[in-house]
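Deliverable D2.4 — example input (structure tokens):
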């Protein structure tokens, strides 16, 4: 038996009145997902434990069966795993966004989706300040490392404070002297990057400048039990973002690089499908395919774009997989990790819908949506239990 897990990041939503009281999932033309829902069984999954932030790191750990209450040490440490850099037990790792700030307001958490090459030059300029180490990721998503320091607070997640004053969301008094030093670093980065030729050019071109670094999600490196040891299956991950690659590395899963996997609307859906199937043919037992695009549309507050990302996932990823797999020898699970509602433009901790297809198991005959999933035969499942149940019982 082979196992395929497809995660549409932030794909769940709330009904939007001006779109007929429907969610993007209910609006999208998604025949392949709905066929899976008809043949499979639906349920509701609580991926974010009570009292924890609705972070994608929390939710994806949960889906993979690593209880975030035990294993989540911060967003930064999980993403650092993507770089395989030597991190000491006393080092603190932050997620480092390049953001756009104007008149003291954070106006864009993604800095207009700055390119990798631009980001590398900009972070190199900030590194001249001599504080910490930078590791360049994808677009606006990077890592900042502090050696042998103690601090457990960072700034607010930038995608949750768009349109708000930065000084209300920087590191507070709990951060002590290190927090003050990092706040100074971020403010100095604004002075440097606002004048950088790359940003001056971006502004001339009508693009948002990447004119400040934003440090958030700090913590120490986690220790995950290897996936194969935990489940007896060889697993792999495919994603355009460093968070999922980092989790995959910590769990000793194969991290599969797909050309053109951008973590954005233009990601290579077909490539993700092809590389996933190839990995299963070459000996992997389970593949975890993560798609970031719906989350980006949710943060942008763009209903139509979110619908398009769901339709792309349906046609260009899932449809391509369904056309080539032996449905008698595969189990498929599809779900969001958390909601990123259009009207909130931020992650929410609500439970999410899930569909599980298993050969010879009677399907629920439903469509896939937030509402329909509550009618499903799987009922309510606690997130960290999901992977074990998917593999062994569902």
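Example output (designed residues):
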């Amino acid at each position: 038996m082979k196992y395929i897990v497809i995660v549409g990041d932030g794909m769940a939503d709330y009904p939007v009145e001006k779109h007929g009281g429907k969610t993007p999932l209910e609006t999208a033309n998604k025949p392949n997902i709905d066929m899976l829902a008809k043949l499979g069984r639906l349920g509701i999954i609580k991926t974010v434990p009570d009292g924890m932030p609705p972070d994608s790191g929390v939710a994806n750990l949960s889906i993979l069966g690593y209880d975030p209450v035990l294993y989540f040490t911060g967003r930064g440490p999980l993403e650092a795993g993507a770089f395989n850099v030597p991190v000491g037990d006393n080092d603190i790792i932050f997620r480092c966004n390049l953001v756009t700030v104007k008149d003291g307001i954070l106006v864009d958490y993604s800095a207009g989706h700055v390119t990798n090459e631009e980001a590398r030059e900009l972070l190199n300029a900030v590194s001249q300040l001599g504080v910490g180490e930078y590791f360049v990721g994808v677009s606006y998503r990077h890592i900042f490392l502090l050696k042998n320091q103690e601090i457990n607070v960072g700034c607010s997640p930038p995608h949750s404070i768009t349109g708000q004053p930065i000084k209300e969301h920087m590191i507070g008094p709990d951060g002590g002297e290190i927090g003050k030093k990092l706040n100074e670093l971020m403010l100095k980065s604004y002075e440097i990057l606002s004048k950088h030729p790359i940003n001056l050019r971006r502004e001339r071109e009508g693009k948002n400048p990447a004119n400040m670094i934003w440090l958030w999600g700090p913590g120490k490196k986690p220790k995950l039990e290897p996936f194969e040891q935990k489940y007896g299956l060889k697993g792999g991950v495919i994603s355009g973002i460093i968070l999922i690659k980092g989790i995959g590395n910590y769990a000793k899963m194969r991290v599969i690089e797909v050309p053109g996997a951008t973590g954005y609307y233009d990601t290579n859906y077909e490539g993700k499908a092809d590389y996933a199937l190839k990995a299963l043919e070459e000996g992997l037992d389970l593949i975890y395919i993560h798609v970031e695009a719906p989350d980006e549309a949710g943060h942008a507050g763009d209903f139509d774009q979110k619908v398009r990302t769901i339709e792309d996932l349906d046609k260009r990823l899932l449809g391509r997989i369904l056309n080539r797999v032996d449905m008698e020898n595969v189990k498929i699970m599809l779900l969001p990790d958390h909601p990123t509602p259009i009207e909130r433009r931020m992650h929410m901790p609500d439970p999410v819908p899930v569909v599980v297809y298993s050969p010879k198991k009677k399907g629920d005959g439903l469509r896939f949506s937030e509402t329909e999933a509550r009618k499903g035969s799987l009922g309510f499942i606690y997130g960290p239990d999901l992977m074990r149940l998917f593999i062994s019982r569902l």
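The mean pLDDT is 96.
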